[in-house]
Amino acid sequence: MKVAVLDKNGKDTGRKADLSKEVFGIEPNNHAVYLDVKQYLANQRQGTHKAKERADITGSTRKIKKQKGTGTARAGSIKSGIFKGGGRMFGPRPRSYSFKLNKNLKRLARRSALSMKANDKSIVVVEDFTMEAPKTQEFTTVLKNLGLENKKCLMVLGESNNNVYLSSRNLKGTEVVTNSELSTYKIMNANSVVLFEGSLEGIEQNLSK
Asked: Which residue intervals of 45-135 are DSSP H helices?
């Protein structure tokens, strides 16, 4: 698959980037994408929820009424969940929501997500550029030149570039990652994926194993 390489001014450089069919041209596996996104979101949950059960409530331990002869159900503790002020029955406890997925499935999910974006023509390839200093206004101009000013955008760098990252950090709909930080959730959450020319080799190397 051939895609035109643009410069940061949004103009065609005359070069074509060859996107690997093994990464950008497969039949998407929707269930793999679902599982990988589900795992990503589950890993974001803190799981620190806690409700007080009857063992955690402060209160008297005396038997509140005699066992028999009252005509009502027996009761042994004021801390029972059936009484006002008692503990909660089967309340939430601290837990981890994370679960494991094997590496091959996660690679399949990322390849599927990139193939979906390629099919939708939502992938833009830009020649590598740097910034002399972190400037959000300059970064916004680049997005405007690429026609992505008002879209949720994921920009993938070939290697860490602190000035580009810091320039994008204040923009709500834009995220900058390196090719090793690429995730299925981030790909699917973006309207457009902007790939630096230098990131293609790393992406294809990571996902074609």
From this structure: 103-119
Average pLDDT over residues 13-38: 93
- Bridge-partner residues for 175, per DSSP? 154
Annotate 69-103 with b (16+ C-beta within 10 A) or e (fewer).
eeeeeeeebbbeeeeeebbeeeeeeeeeeeeeeee
How many residues are present in the chain? 209
Angle between helix axes 30-44 and 103-119 (nearest 10 degrees) is 110
Domain holding 118, by residue range, is 2-44+100-207
Torsions phi, psi for 34 (to 5 deg): -60, -45
Question: Do 80 and 33 belong together in one domain?
Answer: no
Q: How many CB atoms lie within 10 A of CB 61?
A: 8
- Contact status, residue 48 vs residue 94, Cβ threshold 8 Å: yes
Q: Is the predicted pLDDT of residue 209 greater than 90, yes or no?
A: no
- CATH number at 124 reads 3.40.1370.10
Phi-psi region of 172 (alpha: psi -120 to 50; beta: other; left: phi over 0): alpha
